[in-house]
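Data deposition worksheet. Section B asks for the primary sequence of the deposited chain exactly as it was used as input, without tags or linkers unless they were present during the calculation. Section C holds the resulting structure in token form. Section D is free text for depositor observations; keep each observation to a single sentence. Incomplete worksheets are returned to the depositor.
Section A, Depositor: J.P.
Section B:
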Amino acid sequence: MHLACTIPVILIAKLWFLPWFNEYADNAHCYDYDYFTGTQVVLYSIFIGIPISFALLIFAIEGTRSLRVIRLGQNPLPGEKVFRPTKYSYGFRARVKPVAVLLLIAGMTGVGVKGIFTVDKVLIDSDYSHNQCVEL
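Section C:
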């Protein structure tokens, strides 16, 4: 089921989005929006958008369950359906994987926050000229 959903997403990304984004990134310094330049859009989306999106996706899929396992100290959760008969684990042993998931989410969020400062430094240190731009 997951493979059937994943294949179209990968095909759309490879055949449409990545070629478009590659072309946009090559000419990003030529675009000027009201409050952002094209270079800012590319850098912010790469250094901030991707890590924060992954953190939100992981939290949406596994975050609330991990918080419940940490709070109750039991895995699998009471009333949770399991694939096959599973032995319950309690205490520290039950909390190891959920803590790792939350650390991953916190790490990705930290990378996104650090990306703000990284993008600002890169944009200050760089100087893009509009001389090579053609009418887009």
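Section D:
Helices lie at 2-26, 38-72, 92-125.
The chain is about 70% helix and 5% strand.
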